[in-house]
Amino acid sequence: MEYINVLVRDTVMLYWGTSFSDTVVQLSTIINTPFFCGVVVLYVLLLLAQGKQKQVLITLTAIALAFIFAYLLKISLAIPRPEVSLVWEKGFGFPSMHATLSATFLFLFAHISIEQIHNKFWHTTLLVLSIILGLLIGFSRVFLQVHSIDQVIAGFLLGLTVAFLTTFIFEHTKKKRR
Question: pTM of this prediction?
Answer without folding.
Answer: 0.77
